[in-house]
Amino acid sequence: MTGPTVVALGALLFALLLAMVASMVWQEAKRRRWQGPTTYVLDDAVAFVTERLPAELDLTRDDVQRILEWDVFYLQGLAGTEGAPVVGGDEAVEFVRGGIASRHRIDYDGEAVRKVLDLEAAYLQSIGAVGEPAVLPEEGS
């Protein structure tokens, strides 16, 4: 190989190395970017659940909203208690059914309430509110 060819090859390899380093730095920066806290928006949850609800359950948007509001009320009552609350558990279904029946004089089928709460759990997963425990970045890093 002649002198100019070796220099051109060296420059090409150096440019390739720089491109790889820039790519790795960009990927790491993208991975470390913290999105901030996840926000549960009731209207979004109602829309998410309503769109995925089987038609045979025959629940209106207002029914879904009423069920989700009572579930949020249930979960708020568990704040500060030991252990993590279980979204859609048997206790939640009974709390929601009992609260709605006593306040609104409406008796929803337990399976319908369970399906709405299961879809709420899917909504929470879709927004990143549940899953692996979140690890916040350390200060100064």
The radius of gyration over CA amounts to 26 Å
Please tell me what the overall shape is. elongated
The helix fraction, in percent, is: 55-70%
Order of helices and strands: HHHHH
Beta-sheet strand percentage?
A: under 5%
Helix-strand category: mainly alpha
The N- and C-terminal alpha carbons lie at a distance of 47 Å
Q: Tally the helices.
A: 5
Low-pLDDT segments, ≥5 res: none
Write down the overall mean pLDDT: 82
What is the number of strand segments? 0
Largest sheet: number of strands, sense, barrel closure: none
List keywords for this structure.
141 residues; mainly alpha; 5 helices; elongated
Quick overview:
Helix content is 65%, strand content 0%. With 141 residues, it is an all-alpha fold.
Secondary structure elements and their pairing?
Elements: H1 3-32, H2 42-52, H3 61-78, H4 90-104, H5 110-126
Helix pairs in contact: 2-3, 2-5, 3-4, 3-5, 4-5
Describe the model:
With 141 residues, the chain is mostly helical. 65% of the residues lie in helices and 0% in strands. It is built from 5 helices and no strands. It has helices at 3-32, 42-52, 61-78, 90-104, 110-126. α3 packs across α4 (90-104). The longest helix has 30 residues, at 3-32. The protein is elongated.
